[in-house]
TrEMBL record:
The keyword Nucleotidyltransferase does not apply. This is Uncharacterized protein. GO terms for biological process: methylation. Pfam families: Dimerisation, Methyltransf_2. InterPro entries: COMT-like, COMT_C, COMT_dimerisation, SAM-dependent_MTases_sf, WH-like_DNA-bd_sf, WH_DNA-bd_sf. GO terms for molecular function: O-methyltransferase activity; protein dimerization activity. Residues 27-111 form the O-methyltransferase dimerisation domain. SUPFAM superfamilies: S-adenosyl-L-methionine-dependent methyltransferases, Winged helix' DNA-binding domain. Keywords: Methyltransferase, S-adenosyl-L-methionine, Transferase. Residues 137-264 form the O-methyltransferase C-terminal domain. PANTHER family: O-METHYLTRANSFERASE (PTHR11746). It comes from Triticum turgidum subsp. durum (Durum wheat).
Length: 284
């Protein structure tokens, strides 16, 4: 009798394991849905709409403010359900009484939010069709000898990402995303790590693009002379500023002298050898 029960329990456990494995498989296979739903919400301005309604909005509020066609109302409900399941939004109530709220993630996707940082321009850069289709060629990239000297992007699209951006006129999207990301990073740095600027009276932001980081530093620390160094075609689009000096050039060839060199992101090792003495600010 005990033997029969043990056998039955073993079968039940094995069955539960199979169902759990199937569930996890589907979860991983459909993981891209979270990304595209996030992009759709950002493009529709759903976080902004909730924010404008005091942080709590009904489905009707969202439909009206985002211009959702009446025939898509039920689909909007499904979209909002996906956003709540993934933690982009939260919800109070059910069905027609449901009211949607911002979460920590969606709070940085609004204009004029609490942190004053709007990271929504980063979403279309990260969740982008060219990057998604590129991933479908991983097998070829690993196994095809012709692809051995190519990047995965080049295997799929036949050119580098920079050439593709120029071809599609997407450089503006990239720059807007970088400015948004920099604004958030610098808000944290200038609030929590001001001590790293102690003794610094001049600073060069190497590869600083439109100068968002340098502008934030100059505003917080007016005594620091801030310079942005980047390629000529990047600098030409920089805003006019009395607080930041812009220098067109190549960091592989020359970096203006300063007390500190700022590299906002980690650069390849060859970057350091070719650009005189480049140090991340934290390791001055």
């Amino acid at each position: 009798m005990a033997s029969g029960m043990q056998h039955k329990n073993a079968i039940s456990t094995a069955t539960e394991g199979l169902i759990q494995a199937q569930l996890e498989l589907y979860h991983h296979s459909l993981g891209y849905v979270k990304s595209v739903v996030l992009r759709a919400a950002t493009e529709l301005g759903i976080p902004d709409t909730i924010h404008r309604h005091g942080g709590l909005a009904t489905l009707s509020d969202i439909a009206t403010q985002t211009g959702i066609h009446p025939s898509k109302y039920s689909h909007l409900r499904r979209l909002m359900h996906a956003l709540t399941v993934t933690g982009i939004c939260s919800v109070e109530g059910y069905d027609d009484d449901a009211r949607y709220k911002l979460t920590l993630v969606s709070s940085i996707l609004v204009e004029g939010g609490e942190s004053m940082c709007n990271l929504s321009p980063m979403v279309p850069l990260l969740v982008e069709l060219l990057k998604l289709t590129m991933l479908f060629d991983i097998k070829e990239w690993f196994t095809d000898e012709r692809a051995s000297a190519m990047t995965l992007f080049e295997v799929t699209h036949g050119c580098t990402p920079s050439k593709m951006k120029a071809k599609k006129g997407a450089c503006g999207i990239f720059q807007a995303a970088m400015v948004a990301d920099t604004n958030l990073v610098m808000e944290v740095v200038l609030k929590e790590h001001m001590d790293i600027f102690k003794g610094v009276s001049s600073l060069v932001d190497a590869g600083g693009a439109l100068g968002a980081a340098a502008a934030a530093i100059a505003k917080a620390l007016p005594h620091v002379k801030c310079t942005v160094l980047d390629l000529p075609h990047v600098i030409v689009g920089a805003p006019t500023s009395h607080d930041v000096q812009y220098v067109a050039g190549d960091v592989f060839e020359y970096v203006p002298p300063a007390d500190a060199i700022l590299l906002k992101t980690k650069m390849p090792s060859r970057y350091y050898g070719g650009a005189r003495k480049l140090y991340q600010l934290e390791g001055r």
